[in-house]
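Repro case for the chain-ordering regression, as requested:
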Amino acid sequence: MIDQILNLMPELGKAFWETFQMVGISLLLALLLGVPIGLLLFITDKGLFCENKVFNRAGGILVNIIRSIPFVILLVILLPVTQIIVKTTIGPLAASVSLSVAAIVFYARLVDASLREVDKGVIEAATAMGASVPQIITQVLLVEALPGLIRGFTVTAISLIGYSAMAGIVGGGGVGDLAIRYGYYRYQMDVMVVTVAVLIVLVQIVQSIGDYAAKRADKA
Amino acid sequence: MEFSIIMIKFENVSITFNTKKATVNAVRNVSFEVNKGEIFGIVGTSGAGKSTLLRTVNLLEKPNGGKVNVDGVDITLLDKQSLREARQKIGMIFQHYNLIHTKTVYKNVAFPMRISGKSAKEISKRVPELLEEVGLSDKAHVYPGQLSGGQKQRVGIARALANDSHLLLCDEPTSALDLESTKSILELIRTINKKYGITILLISHEMDVIKSICSRVAVMSEGEVVDLNDVYSIFSNPTHEITKQLVRHSLNVEIPDGILGNTEGKIVKVLYRGSSALNPILSNAIRKYPVDMNILHGRIEYIDNQPMGVLLVNINGENNDVVNIIHYLKENTASAEIIYD
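-- result from build under test --
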């Protein structure tokens, strides 16, 4: 059994790198696009400074639609888009396209939710001081919501590690895919156990880092 | 620009809210003026519209009708940029402090200065001064979560003063505080009013708060101002039913039923006001009429440095003398009424 695991090491290393690539790219995009989208959903809501019913409704519905599509199906639906963006539909980079789309809308909702947690009184106080909307967003809203934003980011990262297991369908690879290919299809129980153990450790590490960062940011 | 002693002028201000069920007239046709340098109070039960009215001064609440002049400018007509500049000169403190939890005390106080584009040099000079002023120099690098309520309100006050405001709006500033902190926060508000001549508009549901720092007060009920006078007159001579209720809560002298039942003779409630509070009326009265007099309960308040007192006295003696002495008291005090016969 030890032999088998040792034989697995190069595969595991490669899978690790693939997971890292896929999760890394989509997390980065979730941060770059999910935050602005979540912010827009929040500030266009009723009673807030950029109230816009049409935009808020349309944006909310679009986000919900994408979120309700099972990831495997999203992966397939987005194949033409993937072809345009990365010129191929296989490999970790190709899988990253649909992973990113899922990550962006997922995180956008969590951003929206954590902004809602910000004390309305603090926003009112900043308005009363004569702060502009950009000042309120950058210096009050995002700062006050930071612990929630970090927790949401952690949840997104862990969900992505899970989703990335399905990337095997388009040849994306990754640790989860390894577990499915060796452990499930070839009945190599030990390989499955090892890869799943690796995944558990990975998720634990991500969660711990996230918790630590959120705690550091939380001054309340 | 002509000189004016008026800081805020409400002219026929009305605010209605449309809820799903009905239209609520939160403020109805309110007009009054607040003078520069005074501490003006608005009192009323919750839902009276006082908080909504206060919020029109910096346009956190937009009136549906009427004008709100602040320092000669109709605030409802300003464009976005001018409104922001006007708001920077109007400090505001809140019942729940509304500090930024993720910023230190220092950064909270520096925040309005950063917003108005003050230089780093100005900020680093001014913030320590402000913290000194409110007695929190040692808490500069602490987060609000580690402060007591009273300390948080002090940070709120320092923050409200940061841009040299000429007007301070106080929205129930002591309602979440214990008695001791309430006293010291009111003391601080009074101090900054005296020291900087800053106009203060304060709302509270507690008559005691109004009594201890305001010079004039408007009483609100169901969106209307039902009474407006200097605080002393409001207390000593409440006219409107709502005012009477509020004052009664604050100037409470009652004696237990058990004692009432066991006293002989009459019990008279004597009210003193202004100069009459300082005259030895009671001793003059007993010298004049041969009756026994016993003080059961009493209280003297100093409102705006003028004394005002309530005494419950038990009077015993010949019927004729008792009638005469009560008549004498009536003539020489603000009022004397028999509350137990």
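Ordering looks correct now. The two ends of chain A are 51 Å apart (CA to CA).
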